[in-house]
């Protein structure tokens, strides 16, 4: 039962198509042609590698499925132009001068399966950077010499991620909590980073130890610090670190020891005091007893002396009688 006439799905679709068409013709960056210095084929592959480009190509076909802009000097991926390409499956941006990718850079690329950001100058990866890439299967982000920080939740939403390569960056630590939860992840590249082999990285080292088969170039995945562990493989120190990092005591342990110490001290003091009291009482008791005995002795001596004397006298009397 329809009370008021509603716009049918067809009208809506038409409206969207119209809007898109206008948007496309109005947009300076998108067309059905092919960008300067790029080669576009009918398989929807756009090839712009090694063309000395310093900016992201304009005039990209809207339906582009593969875009290769490697070996240029592009400094920025403009979110607006990139996110028009909602059918993009493959994006190779390797060997450029990208310093930053933001939360909105890949905001609309839900079909993207392959992304290559290697050989750039990225320094850090934020929380939501790859969040919208729900179909991402392979992410290559190697050889960014200044890349020293990846947010713990950077890959949390990439449920289809199978291959992650962050080799030859400047990473010292990596929180693997969200990586462990990725169901499809089967290959990791971590080699050539100055990994810290201290307790902060204990989980990572233990992971490499337990699932060595997952790690590409595991032999080159080595500690950069501390000095005495330099060059040791992460897989090698995994167990060692586990035991080492868990023998130290937490603040609750110290509190426990302080409490136990106090209890023992208190118990000792109380029992010593009790013992002292008992001894004093006992001594007094003994002393009183002695005094009583002495008193009794004195009084009985006084009473017994005449008797004793008479006894002695009697005895001497007897002997004298016998004699
Ligand atoms: C990067 O691109 C430049 C050309 O812009 C090229 O000369 C160089 O060999 C490339 N480097 C790598 C590692 O592919
Ligand atoms: C790598 O990181 C360290 C600090 O962790 C920094 O001192 C060094 O300059 C970085 N290297 C590069 C190439 O940015
Ligand atoms: C790793 O990240 C998770 C989630 O952000 C956090 O709860 C956890 O404490 C982190 N682990 C370490 C060792 O920093």
UniProtKB/TrEMBL annotation:
The keyword Magnesium does not apply. Residues 296-323 are annotated as: Disordered. Keywords: Cell membrane, Disulfide bond, Ion channel, Ion transport, Leucine-rich repeat, Membrane, Repeat, Signal, Transmembrane, Transmembrane helix, Transport. Residues 33-66 form the LRRNT domain. It is a single-pass membrane protein. Residues 1-26 form the signal peptide. It is found in: Cell membrane. It comes from the Eukaryota. This is LRRNT domain-containing protein. It comes from Oryzias latipes (Japanese rice fish). The gene is LOC101174134.
């Amino acid at each position: 039962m329809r009370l008021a006439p509603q716009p049918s799905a067809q009208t809506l679709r038409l409206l969207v198509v119209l809007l898109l068409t206008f948007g496309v013709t109005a947009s300076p960056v998108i067309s059905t042609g092919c960008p300067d210095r790029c080669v576009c084929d009918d398989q929807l592959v756009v090839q712009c590698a090694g063309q000395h480009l310093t900016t992201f190509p304009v005039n990209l076909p809207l339906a582009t499925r593969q875009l290769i802009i490697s070996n240029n000097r592009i400094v920025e991926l403009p979110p607006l132009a990139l996110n028009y390409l909602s059918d993009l499956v493959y994006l190779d941006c390797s060997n450029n001068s990208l310093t930053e990718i933001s939360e909105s850079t890949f905001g609309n690329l839900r079909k993207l399966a392959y992304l290559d950001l290697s050989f750039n100058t990225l320094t850090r990866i934020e929380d939501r950077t790859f969040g919208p890439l729900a179909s991402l299967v392979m992410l290559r982000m190697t050889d960014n010499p200044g890349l020293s920080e990846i947010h713990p939740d950077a890959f949390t939403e990439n449920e289809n991620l199978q291959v992650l390569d962050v080799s030859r960056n400047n990473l010292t630590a990596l929180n693997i909590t969200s990586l462990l939860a990725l169901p499809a992840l089967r290959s990791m590249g971590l080699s050539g980073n100055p990994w810290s082999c201290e307790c902060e990285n204990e989980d990572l080292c233990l992971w490499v130890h337990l699932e060595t088969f997952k790690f590409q170039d595991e032999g080159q995945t080595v500690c950069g610090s501390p000095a005495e562990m330099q060059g040791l493989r992460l897989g090698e120190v995994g167990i060692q670190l586990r035991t080492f990092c868990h023998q130290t005591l937490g603040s609750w342990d110290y509190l426990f020891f302080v409490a136990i110490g106090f209890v023992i001290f208190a118990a000792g003091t109380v029992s010593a005091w009790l013992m002292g009291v008992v001894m004093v009482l006992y001594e007094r008791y003994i002393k009183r007893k002695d005094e009583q005995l002495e008193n009794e002795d004195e009084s009985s001596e006084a009473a017994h002396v005449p008797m004793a004397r008479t006894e002695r006298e009697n005895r001497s009397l007897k002997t004298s009688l016998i004699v």
